Amino acid sequence: MIPRKNILSFFCSSHFYSKFFRYYSTYPSSFFKINSKFDSDQIYDFRSDTVTKPTDEMFDIMRNASRNDDVLDEDESTNELETYMAELTGHEAALFVPSGTMTNQIAIRAHLSTPPHSVLCDFRSHICNYEAGGIAYHSQASVTPLKPSNKLFLTCSEIESELIVTDDIHYAPTRVISLENTLNGLLFPIDEIHKISKLAKKSNIKLHLDGARLWNACAETNSSLQTFTKNFDSVSLCLSKSIGAPIGSVLVGNKEFIKTAKHLRKLFGGGWRQCGLLAAAAKFAIASNFPDNLKKSHLLTKKLSNELFNLGIHITLPVHTNMIFIDTKSINITTGELANRLALHNILIFGNNSTTTRLVLHYQIPPISIEKFIDVVANIIKEKKN
Ligand SMILES: Cc1ncc(COP(=O)(O)O)c(C=O)c1O
């Protein structure tokens, strides 16, 4: 078995993250030099909500999961999760898939048939920036990335004015509109989603939602998943982000769509065999964390954001759920220096030579770490003044 410390070192290393997140860049490798004797149980990891660790209770649940072959459709725990997710989202069927990237890419591929065709989305969205160019590779589609003029979410009228619905052979018609909720932690207003859904139906365009963090949107707005999911032809929901499961995403849609998706999952190499233990862990994570633990982490996020703002740090996007985007220029420190100082207190953030970064909270970030975080920043500011 790899020692825990080595696993952590790998995931914190710049090697792992450097190419991954263009805008939040690398975590300084100095952490492990500075902090050679840390206890991994006391690490407060603000880099992402993907970092939550499976709990002992989760392992107990995994031990009792079914152990059959899902490619042969024989695994009870997997079928149970899929039925549960279909019911929760008000869709006919669901498919358990290894990653959020795979659910999104399968969904887009399943909605599209023959090129030329295109997918319209927010220019910041995961599907067009962080899925390794998957839309071009898997679906031979071009992307129409739009910049929302309100800087928060795309409006129906913005989308309508950019749809490609002409027969002119110079263009690739829009066949899919893909939204993301939350996006950078921002809530997509439900009224706007209703309008976009109507527009998509009227225009005979499929509407997909990257709902990797739809759980957060629902927890924050006290809404059921169905409030959002019923407006879409397909929705991808991640289980390995703030909901806290170790691995997996679920794609929902109608029966025919999920049948195609299942075929494509196999083609993508994502047909998994004895995955019941992961499905059981995911169902347990949903029951344990949604919505209350997410709500708590949103409250802590707002607390941290308010305190940082009061200390003079610029908060560059509104804080709706579990993410804070900061600019440390005003306190004259790079995010790399801040990361190194926080690392001395077992707090992990992404940092580099720039002054902007993203902080992400999740249910394994306790209130005590917020106090520590604030203390470190307050001390740095005090030192700079002296
Ligand atoms: C909004 C969004 N969608 C999709 C994904 C992809 O998920 P995965 O890392 O499981 O491929 C991510 C990952 O961070 C994400 O933030």
UniProtKB/TrEMBL annotation:
Pfam families per the UniProt record, alphabetical: Beta_elim_lyase
Keyword Chloroplast belongs to the record: no
Keyword terms of this UniProt record: Lyase, Pyridoxal phosphate, Transferase
Span of domain Aromatic amino acid beta-eliminating lyase/threonine aldolase: 45-328
BP-aspect Gene Ontology terms: glycine biosynthetic process; L-threonine catabolic process
List of residues that carry N6-(pyridoxal phosphate)lysine: 241
Alphabetical list of InterPro entries matching this protein: ArAA_b-elim_lyase/Thr_aldolase, Low_specificity_L-TA-like, PyrdxlP-dep_Trfase, PyrdxlP-dep_Trfase_major, PyrdxlP-dep_Trfase_small
Gene3D superfamilies given in the database record: Aspartate Aminotransferase, domain 1 (3.90.1150.10), Type I PLP-dependent aspartate aminotransferase-like (Major domain) (3.40.640.10)
GO cellular component entries: cytosol
Keyword Transferase: yes
Cofactor(s) needed by this chain: pyridoxal 5'-phosphate
UniProt superkingdom: Eukaryota
GO molecular function annotations of the record: L-allo-threonine aldolase activity; transferase activity
Family listed: Belongs to the threonine aldolase family.
NCBIfam families: GntG_guanitoxin
Name of the featured protein: Pyridoxal phosphate-dependent transferase
